[in-house]
Amino acid sequence: MVNDTADGPALGFPPSARLRRRAEFQRVQARGQRLVLTHFIVFVHRTGGAHSARLGITVSKKVGHAPIRSRWKRLVREAFRRLRPELAPGLDIVVIGRPGVPEPDFDVVGHALRGALLRTRQRDR
Q1: What are the CA-CA distances from residue 10 to residues 69, 83, 85, 89 (Å)?
Q2: Whole-angstrom Cα distance, residue 123 to residue 28?
Q3: In which region does residue 8 sit, left (phi positive, over 0), alpha (psi from -120 to 50) or beta (all else)?
Q4: Domains and CATH numbers, the chain
Q5: Helix, strand or coil for residue 117?
Q6: Start-end of H helices in 1-125
Q7: Are 77 and 57 in contact (CB under 8 A)?
Q8: Banded pLDDT at 124 (limits 50, 70, 90)
């Protein structure tokens, strides 16, 4: 199945773009750069692999009930999905929702995630 549009590749979130195993999350958290933002803690680890950028999301029950946690995850996934074509291959990202902060909207999430990834690029130089 071809996943391209007339304007270029489709922006999806296939299983290959996800961190799925606990060990993958732990590796990124142990070895990656940590950025503390208002709504999130973001860990970024450059694996050096050829795979495209991958995302893992953690939102604990301390953040809120299931519908609230699901909304946070949807917002982060959508922001990542839109940023993914700009990201370097071999990049693993873990986003952890912080409890005790107001629920963000999409613009806040997108801006925060983009800013975090730009800061990690600058630190690598």
Answers
A1: 26, 12, 10, 17
A2: 17
A3: left
A4: 16-124 (3.30.230.10)
A5: helix
A6: 22-31, 66-83, 106-124
A7: yes
A8: low
Statement: residue 10 has pLDDT above 60 = no
Each residue's pLDDT tens digit, 55-68: 999 999 999 999 99
Q: What pLDDT, on a 0 to 100 scale, did the predictor assign at position 95?
A: 96
**What letters, b where the CB count within 10 A reaches 16 and e where it falls short, cover 76-105?**
bbebbeebbeebeeebbbbbbbbeeeeebe
Residue 26 has a pLDDT of 96
The CA distance from 32 to 63, in Å, is 23
Residue in 3, 19, 117, 87 with CA at minimum distance from that of residue 109:
117
